Amino acid sequence: xxxxxxxxxxxxxxxxxxxxxxxxxxxxxxxxxxxxxxxxxxxxxxxxxxxxxxxxxxxxxxxxxxxxxxxxxxxxxxxxxxxxxxxxxxxxxxxxxxxxxxxxxxxxxxxxxxxxxxxxxxxxxxxxxxxxxxxxxxxxxxxxxxxxxxxxxxxxxxxxxxxxxxxxxxxxxxxxxxxxxxxxxxxxxxxxxxxxxxxxxxxxxxxxxxxxxxxxxxxxxxxxxxxxxxxxxxxxxxxxxxxxxxxxxxxxxxxxxxxxxxxxxxxxxxxxxxxxxxxxxxxxxxxxxxxxxxxxxxxxxxxxxxxxxxxxxxxxxxxxxxxxxxxxxxxxxxxxxxxxxxxxxxxxxxxxxxxxxxxxxxxxxxxxxxxxxxxxxxxxxxxxxxxxxxxxxxxxxxxxxxxxxxxxxxxxxxxxxxxxxxxxxxxxxxxxxxxxxxxxxxxxxxxxxxxxxxxxxxxxxxxxxxxxxxxxxxxxxxxxxxxxxxxxxxxxxxxxxxxxxxxxxxxxxxxxxxxxxxxxxxxxxxxxxxxxxxxxxxxxxxxxxxxxxxxxxxxxxxxxxxxxxxxxxxxxxxxxxxxxxxxxxxxxxxxxxxxxxxxxxxxxxxxxxxxxxxxxxxxxxxxxxxxxxxxxxxxxxxxxxxxxxxxxxxxxxxxxxxxxxxxxxxxxxxxxxxxxxxxxxxxxxxxxxxxxxxxxxxxxxxxxxxxxxxxxxxxxxxxxxxxxxxxxxxxxxxxxxxxxxxxxxxxxxxxxxxxxxxxxxxxxxxxxxxxxxxxxxxxxxxxxxxxxxxxxxxxxxxxxxxxxxxxxx
Length: 809
Prior knowledge:
Helices cover 59% and strands 9% of the residues. By secondary structure, it is an alpha+beta fold. Among the domains are: 1-33 and 175-274 and 291-340, Multidrug efflux transporter AcrB transmembrane fold (Up-down Bundle); 355-388 and 545-699, Multidrug efflux transporter AcrB transmembrane fold (Up-down Bundle), CATH 1.20.1640; 715-809, no CATH class. The protein has a 4-stranded antiparallel β-sheet, with helices on both faces. A 4-stranded antiparallel β-sheet has the order 6-7-5-8, with helices on both faces. Strand 6 and strand 7 (466-473) form a beta hairpin. The longest helix has 35 residues, at 510-544. The radius of gyration is 32 Å and the shape is elongated. Mean pLDDT is 79; it is low at 717-776, 780-786 and 791-809.
């Protein structure tokens, strides 16, 4: 890391040029090649997936999206001559558009069932030649424009709406309002933390370059594999959050180095060497958690995992290469004017935790049981709604009330029954006259089944080997009654009809697909969670040489996910505030949301765990005092963790305004989880538990310690950039005898400029004589070296005085 940082600082213009070239090249390639995202969430290998594949093969003219045009009049009927004439003209105009395969008008001989019984509502089935994402938004928008124009000019109070998967592409969020608001909020927080416009700009520039390159790369990736249509925005959401945060940690360490008297070059090198290692470790845990989705073997989730991981990898790479180059360019302007003035007039000053951070840390130390209990109760209460989780796929009935897709959905449900919006499709493989006879008889059997409103068909393919029957339930697609109907058809009705024949009938359609997909996710969720938590815990075990730290991290991460789910369920499933926020009506939680949330939240939680516990671990290694280690670690890291959390909350919360229900779910879930993780778990519950457990926090069996490989997040004391042999202070052996007072835990001697921070007891080379006497400092000889110790009464200026003496030497 030291070599990389020095190389980037020395060739900062080249580093900046390489990143700009990568950004421009990726964006240009993406614009020329285009993208091909998928909105097909079918689970391959399931019965509904098999039905969809068979239907596409037997009826290739139906492979495009099937949408619906709905019109309603409050005065008269849709059979009125003026209404029929105007709508018939509009339907013919739409059918003549490029990309439109067919339009089934209700005004034909076979269209009577497409007019409601009261005559106030009618609909036409519209089929595109190809999936809407391949057609492009402009072609689909022309369909909507013609339909809307018919309603505007026909009179008779005619309302015309359009719904369906293809039409939904015209309602995708266009303006990047969420990203703009998120970045603006992050900029405000950064400026309040730094007080310098130059320092504020660097995390934003780093994150935007990384996210922009990743977004273009995700578009190219979609040409090579299945990538869900929400993956680019999810990647941007994650990338902005972690990218700004990672840069924040490094810039904070760089500014600390400048204030302590380091040169710009050495401060930047040390920042990357120390904080950059933690950033790489944190980024690796996020990627491991995201790539855990690959074990689910769902093609569109594979694309999501790789897309999000690409964004994180580029964010980490920009933080440890582009950022140090930019730090070298702005020089001391990383400090505010006031800080630069103080540095010039008063000289360097070591950073010491002061103010609220120190008082809060001491408060937690005094009341660990009470505060721990309060935090645990709060997390448990927020997690309670998770017990009522209903997994399912939201449809256009959950869209905002003003959208044309939502209004078309409501008009169909009111005029023809709720099941019209999600009919079931029975696809049969027919082989011979016996199978055909049984399939012809199937509609009569289904009509006698409870929960069925209407049955149409059968219809056979040109070759006659595939038959289709459409079943309209009397309940909505998201209703449990519709799911029960699917189970009855599969488990009771169809086996009886197929008995004694070779007929094979599969139940497909909206609800069947949703249920199958949710079942696949739920079945594999325990394995997925176990793998992700197991791998993350193993990394923590290697880094912190402790059994307790990984176990607490696993429990805390599960608590954060459960509490965040409670918030999501209250907003989206119960509908608390969803309509005022423009998120549509209450509905089920997307089946893939738990998977992606566990991946992302586990990775993000590991960030805070690493930054908090690594400082505690460093203090523990130096002092062996658990109480002081927890107090110092919390007081010194809480401010940067809280600042990072506020930035993430602002970025994630802004995506509620994206106009996309799925992305809004992610935004609220991640914002809630980060808020709870940073302000309840990491700054309250975790330190309280660590105070209560004492030295058991750091227990590791000797036999296991000897067998585990060494993995260090922080560089060893005395090995930092700028350190020469003998200039870094190393911990004295625990068994080291010698005269003089016992070193006091936690008093840190600031070493020479360029040396890593030292412990309470440290060694200096023999011959470094003439160290001035300072109150509270004792120098004792031991095996030809000097042992330096500070008593409890030593003033804080003692360490500063020793550092000043080393500078003179």
